[in-house]
From TrEMBL:
This is Phosphoadenosine phosphosulfate reductase. It comes from Pedobacter frigiditerrae. Pfam families: PAPS_reduct. The lineage of its organism: Bacteria, Pseudomonadati, Bacteroidota, Sphingobacteriia, Sphingobacteriales. SUPFAM superfamilies: Adenine nucleotide alpha hydrolases-like. Residues 7-125 form the Phosphoadenosine phosphosulphate reductase domain.
Length: 368
């Protein structure tokens, strides 16, 4: 592989990036991948345990990237003070920028980088760690390992002739004719990049990957500097259950906060858990997760409460001290249970978890 390109994999503390690290190490031991994590100083204990378990399992040291914080020993608190007590929110996410993205970008400098990201095969989203042009994301758990931007270059209407030439080397005559028909159909309203991609991948995932790889040789992307790329032959699609299986079978284990805990409300039983990694006070968590934090880890909940002062709150519509009113807790639990029941009536139960997960917001740097 080209030595001028660095291969990096960020461990967010979430299940998907942890499983990806195990997966990559097992499938591609020959790859020189740097593992790193950005510590906000406010992660859950289970996250630090997961990172420790991964280091033991992988036999590597996971580089800890800290934000620049002068002499302050806590990255989050340093910036929180600097910004005058202003709490981050989904509209003003200074925490991700200062505590995750900037440390990562300082770490990689200007070297071309391929960053491996654990977006799963059952998710419909993109996930970038950085938007710098010398950083390229690859998604090994998906059928389509490439990012949207890369597919845009490969399938561009003005790249048709190049694709036709490249495909000739990879397909039998019969299949080549089908590929040629697809390639010659221009992208337009009613025929999207995604449709074209699916049609071509339907003729062969490996073949598409090899063609894409060759087609990108003339680009400025980091992949253009790589001589060989073993992921071109990767046809696996990994979904949620696979992630839990990898974590369990490897011995690394699933962080305890993902385990569902039963609760009683109005004579019925619901289940709650925390659905993501990240800071214990993360503003992305749902109301039921705040209740989970209060009941399952009250010390952390009260620490989160201490940040709510001078008019700043973690949620727009409610202060944490209001949320822990017993009647309000019952209400949140009942609403969540009703939502779960409605979801399971509308969809097959084995999809329930995916439906609720689909509501998750967040970013690749914190939660994958
Ligand atoms: S986990 Fe949440 S609070 Fe922490 S850095 Fe990420 S977005 Fe910000």
């Amino acid at each position: 592989m080209g030595s001028s390109v660095r291969h990096v994999l960020g461990i967010s503390g979430g299940k998907d990036s942890a499983a990806l690290a195990i997966y990559m190490k097992e499938l591609y031991p020959q790859m020189d991948i740097e593992f790193y994590t950005c510590d906000t100083g406010k992660e859950l204990d289970e996250t630090y345990q997961l990172i420790h378990n991964l280091e033991s399992k992988l036999g590597v040291s996971i580089k800890k990237l800290d934000a620049k914080t002068a002499d302050h020993d806590n990255p989050f608190d340093f910036y929180h003070q600097l910004f005058g007590g202003y709490l981050p929110s989904s509209n003003a996410r200074w925490c991700t920028q200062k505590l995750k993205i900037e440390p990562f970008e300082n770490y990689i400098g200007t070297t071309p980088v391929i960053s491996y990201v654990g977006i799963r095969g059952d998710e419909d989203r993109e996930g970038y760690i950085s938007t710098k042009p010398h950083v390229q994301s690859i998604f090994p758990f998906r059928e389509n390992i490439w990012s949207e931007e890369v597919i845009g270059k490969v399938l561009a209407n003005d790249n048709q002739q190049h694709l036709l030439t490249l495909y000739k080397d990879f397909l039998t005559e019969n299949i080549y004719q089908r590929a040629a028909d697809i390639i010659k159909t221009p992208l337009r309203m009613g025929y999207t990049q995604n449709q074209k991609l699916k049609a071509l991948m339907g003729l062969g995932i490996k073949e598409f990957n090899h063609v894409a790889f060759q087609s990108l040789k003339s680009s400025q992307l980091p992949i253009a500097l790589v001589d060989e790329f073993p992921l071109l032959d990767n046809e696996s699609i990994l979904i949620r259950d696979d992630i839990f299986r990898i974590l369990r079978e490897s011995g690394v284990g699933v962080p305890a906060y993902y385990e569902e805990i039963p609760y009683e409300v109005n004579g019925k039983t619901g289940h709650y858990n925390r659905s993501r990694s990240g800071c214990f006070f993360c503003f992305f968590q749902r109301k039921i997760e705040w209740v989970w934090l209060y009941e399952q880890n009250p010390a952390k909940f009260f620490l989160a409460m201490e940040y709510e002062k001078d008019g700043y709150t973690w949620m727009q519509d409610e202060r944490l001290e209001e949320l822990i009113n017993p009647e309000r807790i019952q209400q949140i639990k009942q609403e969540f249970l009703t939502k779960q029941q409605n979801a399971s009536q509308n969809f097959r139960s084995n999809k329930l978890i995916d439906i609720l997960d689909a509501e998750e917001e967040g970013c690749a740097a914190c939660f994958i």
